[in-house]
Amino acid sequence: MSDSLNQITQKRYRYSKKAKKEHKQAYLFVAPAVFVSAVFIGLAVLFVIYLSFHKVNLFKHTYSFLGLDNYARAIKDTTTRVAFKNTLTFSAIVVPTQTFLALVLASLLNSKIKGKMIFRAIYFLPTLTSSSALTLIFMFMFSVTGPINGFLIKMGWIDVGINFLENPAFALKVIMAMNIWSTIPFYMTLYLASLQDLPDSIYESAEIDGAGPVRKFFSITLPYLKPMTTYVLITGIIGTLQMFDQAYIFSNGSGGPANSTLTVSLMVYRYAFGTQNAMGFAATLAVMLAVVILLLSILSNKLNKSDSWY
Amino acid sequence: MMKKILVLALAAIFAFSLAACAKEGKETSNETKTEETSKGEDTSKVETEEPAQDTAKTEETTGADYAGKTLNVGVWGGNDAEVAALNQVIKDFEAKTGAKIELKTYTDINTQLQADFIAGTAPDVFYVDANVFPFYATLDVMLELDPVEMNADAYYSNLLNAFTTEDGKIYAIPKDMSTLAMYVNTGILEEVGYTIEDIPTSLEEMVTFLPELQAKLDAKYGPQQVTAMTYNQDLARNLHLLERNGASITDADEMATLSSEGVLKNFNFIMELIKTNAYKTPAEIGLGWNGEVFGTGKCVIMEEGNWVYGNLVQNYPDIKFEVLDMPSYLGEKSSMTYTVGYAISAASKEQDLAKEWIKYATGDGMVTWCSGAGTLPSRDDVAKKMNVEADPVWATHLAQVEYAMPWQKGTTISIINSAYQNYFPSIVSGELTPEEGLKQVDQLANDEIANSR
Fold first, then answer.
1. Which of A38, A208, A293, B63 is 20 to 30 A away from residue A19, measured at CA?
2. Phi, psi of B129 (to 5 degrees)
3. Per-residue confidence at A9, pLDDT binned at 50, 70, 90?
């Protein structure tokens, strides 16, 4: 350990004057960006952590230290548990589904089918729509008299429309469907961009070796896309665990029906901007969510790396 | 060497662009400043002329003292008519006083105004909904208003009470109000053989009337096509029923007590209406809100605020309707009233001008505002001046204020209402009995309140 450290320091001393000057210039150029993110992200994060240990009234600038009280309360609180359960369930279903479907769609659109440009454009459309507008459209589609129920009744599968929006068994699933549907195109585009860099020659040589389309997918496409998959998984995990707008619009901010669409972010919002001055408790929940996101991201990164495709 | 020159050049460009940015900012601020001062000069000229012409007009001249001053007013956005009406009030006020009104329009006032107070950038005067007034009152961010100076007696007392703290201090002046009344689609009603006189005046009678009406509607239009009556799963609409007969949804500590005996009894009555299957929410009908359901002819009766009136006339001109008093319950008439007031920020540096604005906007300006925006005045003399009674719909809405309950209940009401909306569907679907459901509501709300304290 100290050996390698020595080597590094020795190496640093061996930089020429010119090189050192260049380093200084580099730092100078990086400085504005570092300064901005230190103020607007770094300080904000530190402040949230500070708040999470306090009972805060930001209006009167009173901060009373509570130690781990907020955390203890959050862990004991049944509603918090429900919110974490909903959020993790949401993520556990949405992330794998959207990653898998995006991958399949991308490899299909990368093949030599006719009109793939048109398909690409059509598939990309949901990403361009704002998620709040999508939520309203989905709420219409899944309403009692909406097209989904109309279809189910016409097919004779049900007699009376199902109230998807007010039934705790369905509400979160509707949001899942919407989220999967609207995020696939974005990830598909990422995969597609990556696939277009993949030289045809690799496929050709595989074909000469007698590989079929399935073998080619698993032995060439998948390993080649692995860095992209890491990115897709991590952004997917972060995005789903921070889900807020859809649940907010869907439940009018209440997290209902029967807490089925209550997510952690929605809870944070309700405590932070409610009428009880609970910014401290909101900060606690936000920190807990951040820790969960961090752990899951590290885990997915590790899992994805440990499989050696190469 | 080449690299060094390049770096220097880049740095120079960078520095220059920064300077340019800064300069631009300065320039624009200078511009507005000169504009303001020139305006100020203009009005001050008028000011010096005026006393010479008419020295007796003391009130006018004190108004003119505000020339060159700017007042920030925080409001939320409204429809075109509301924006136009507010702009007219502002224009008139500016002409009268020479002050300049700077509007700050919030899209989500609850979060943004809180942030503004924390950051110390709150406007001098701002809208405060009666519903959130108790919360702002705990923060000491509002200036106490003198009842004599603000002519407090002129306003409807239940509205003014909504902006009065327990120790009798007034912190806001109601700028307008809306009330709930009962709308009846007389077109459909007559099609199925009823007249407006057949509509019961009490909710108890509705329990038997609604299924009869529903049966006739189903026979005429097909099952479930037209609903007899709509309702909302919202404390903002249900509170006056739930708190009847001395019941209260909160205790002295502002904790939720919806599962208490009195509230449960009243809630069970609402359930009786729901069980008729002729009393539904807009969501159950598959639409957004009562006005849409009513306007598209999907329901016969609804309870709505006066904001729906203009909407119906404008967007659904074919609907024939009449507006009645709210039905009574347990022998008493009641309704809900929604009011918004103007409050002054305690940190404002223009408090005199702010008071002047409130006096104007809730005095002479109220006629302009209410007739333009389609709301009811918050004081009787303005209602008479506007001749509100001339239109039977407005007259009915105005009449409700006599027994209407303002939508306000301590600082915890938003939490309790969320919990209420959260569990209401499960009670209707039968998953939970009313008692179980309301217990869940209490637990959810009280946990959240406890965590917040």
1. A38
2. -75, 140
3. low
Q: What pLDDT, on a 0 to 100 scale, did the predictor assign at position B354?
A: 94
Chain B: give the shortest CA distance to residue A198, in Å.
Answer: 36
- What digits encode the pLDDT tens for the residues B144-174? 999 999 999 999 999 999 999 999 999 999 9
Domain count, chain A: 2
Chain B nearest-CA residue for A71? B451
Q: Are residues A158 and A279 located together in one domain of the fold? A: yes
Amino acid at B32: T
Are A261 and A175 in contact by the 8 Å Cβ rule? The answer is yes
Closest CA to B422 of A49, A196, A253, A303: A253
Judged by DSSP in three states, A74 sits in helix
User: What CA–CA distances, in Å, run from A170 to A165, B19, B404?
Assistant: 7, 57, 38
- Considering only the beta carbons, identify the residue of A28, A257, A273 that sits closest to B426: A257
Structure tokens that stand for B155 in this block: 């306003």
Side-chain half-sphere of B401: how many Cα atoms within 13 Å?
24
Domain borders along chain B are 59-178+339-393, 180-336+410-452
Buried b (16+ CB within 10 A) or exposed e, B5-23: eebeeeeeeeeeeeeeeee
Burial of B400 (0-12, 13-18, 19+ CB in 10 A): buried
A79 touches chain B (CB under 8 A): yes
For residue B235, which residues of chain A lie inside 8 Å, CB to CB? none
Where in the sequence is the domain holding A148, given as residue range(s)?
Answer: 70-306
Q: Which amino acid is it at B286?
A: G
Residue A45: other Cβ atoms inside 10 A: 13
- Per residue in A29-59, pLDDT (tens digit) is 999 999 999 999 999 999 999 999 999 888 8
Residues A26 and A122 reside in one and the same domain: no
pLDDT confidence of residue A52:
93
Is residue A183 in some structural domain?
A: yes
Rounded to 5 degrees, what are φ and ψ at B331? 75, 5
At A137-171, the pLDDT tens digits run 888 888 888 899 999 999 888 888 888 888 889 99
CA B43 to chain centroid, in Å, comes to 35
More confident residue, B58 or A243: A243
Q: Which homologous superfamily is B180-336+410-452 in?
A: Periplasmic binding protein-like II (3.40.190.10)
Q: Which CATH number fits domain B59-178+339-393: 1.10.3210.10, 3.10.150.10, 3.40.190.10, 2.40.30.10?
A: 3.40.190.10
CA distance B14 to A290: 36
Confidence at residue B407, expressed as pLDDT on a 0 to 100 scale: 95
Average confidence (pLDDT) over A274-293: 92
Spell out, as residue ranges, where chain B has pLDDT lower than 50.
Answer: 1-2, 6-7, 10, 13-63
What is the DSSP code (8-state) at residue A39?
I
Contacts of residue B388, Cβ cutoff 8 Å, sequence gap at least 6:
B376, B377, B394, B395, B398
Q: Which of residues 251-310 of A touch B (CB under 8 A)?
A: 251-259, 270-271, 273-278, 281
Shared domain for A115 and A217, answered yes or no, is: yes
A124 with A39, same domain: the answer is no
A4–B contact, CB cutoff 8 A? no
Assign residue A90 the CATH number of its domain: 1.10.3720.10
For residue range A175-217, list pLDDT tens digits in order.
999 999 988 999 998 998 888 888 888 888 988 998 888 888 8
CA A263, A267, A273: angle at the middle one, nearest 5?
145
pLDDT of residue A60: 85
Q: Which residue would you say has higher pLDDT here, B155 or A252?
A: B155
The answer to whether residues A38 and A79 belong to one domain is: no
A184 in any annotated domain: yes
pLDDT at A122 over 90: no
Q: Are residues A163 and A43 in the same domain?
A: no
Decide the pairing of beta strands A54-57 and B335-344: unpaired
